[in-house]
Please model this.
Amino acid sequence: MIHAEGNALRLIRIDRPDKANALTPDMLQALCEAVEGAQDAHALVLTGTGKVFSAGADLDAAKAGMARTPLWERLSGAIARHAGLTICALNGTVAGGAMGMALACDLRIAAPGAKLFYPVMKLGYLPQQSDPARLAALVGPARAKMILMAGQKIPADEALTWGLIDRIVEGDVVEAARDLATDVLAADPGHAAAIKALIHRRPV
Model:
């Protein structure tokens, strides 16, 4: 249900379309291992199969404790630490804990019909520890509260205006992600890592 392919560009795909790509504990573990195993890739692309990127945790698994597993933080941390270019290619809607993957990526592109939401208030869970700060860094504190506290579903066009996503893609989001990674794939990995480090460096 988690497929990884490629070397310099590692594509990791969530493949459970009959369940809106909702994640089981085994799938979440597999995602962690796939991302951790891709640290040498020049670029990392995350996507899903079908019309939904991921609905987050499988509902039954969430009720059984999956919503509180440290694997979510392990996954987003591994994405955030990746030295190459990381791209979340949202083939459709992303919800709940799966938002952590998108927030941890360097770039987020989305199909036109995608929505982004994180219904922790409604479900009675806290968001994963690093997600609120990453969300606020992208859209500001008030809009982060719109998503996490007011439970708003943000359509792709509004998410683009907010800075929550970086581009809306009419065609194949994976091919669009490959195009975005072209220069990184052609460069020395150390050069790309150095530029990324400079971008994230705090001003003196």
Observations:
- The first strand starts at residue 2 and ends at 5.
